[in-house]
Design goal:
This protein is of the alpha+beta class. It has three helices and nine strands. It has one domain (about 20-130): Lipocalin, CATH 2.40.128. A hairpin with a 2-residue loop joins β4 and β5.
Length: about 140
């Protein structure tokens, strides 16, 4: 009888231990963030953003888009595998696009303070500002998400 009484406690503890930092997910879920700095420089293109919709991340920095699954693991953003379009870009935008791709693949640490997010990993840093959602307008153009 004691074993049956403790079963719900063990199940609840197991679920909590495997949740993988759900609090971080809730900070990002259904949100869009505008890049304000990429490695200390202002973005070279208007519309440089990350959108989190459901379990899908959409990223636009230069001339291309990246998308794929995402999750939070403690203080790290785990994105990928990411699909990437491959259009040619002018050099400054291309360099920033490569930096953000490298940053996301490296499972960056992230911090959120109100409407500001910082991503840091592998020699790259990005600062972002949360955009306010206007009835579904937080979707990344061209991604359907």
């Amino acid at each position: 009888m004691v074993r049956h009484a403790l079963l719900p406690v063990f199940c609840a503890a197991s679920l909590a231990a495997c949740s993988g930092g759900g609090g971080g997910d809730s900070q990002l879920s259904r949100s869009t963030w505008r890049f304000t700095l990429i490695d200390g420089q202002h973005p070279q293109t208007d519309g440089a953003r990350i959108t989190f919709e459901g379990r899908k991340i959409g990223v636009r920095v230069g001339c291309n888009q990246m998308d794929g699954p995402w999750r939070v693991d403690d203080d790290r953003l785990v994105a990928g595998p990411l699909a990437l379009t491959e259009m040619s870009c002018p050099t400054p935008a291309w360099d920033q696009e490569k930096a953000i791709g490298a940053l996301l693949v490296a499972t960056p640490r992230f911090t959120v303070d109100r409407n500001r997010m910082i991503l840091q990993s592998s020699g790259h840093t990005a600062e972002l500002q949360r955009e306010t959602s206007v009835a579904g307008n937080d979707k990344l153009p061209g991604t359907g998400s």
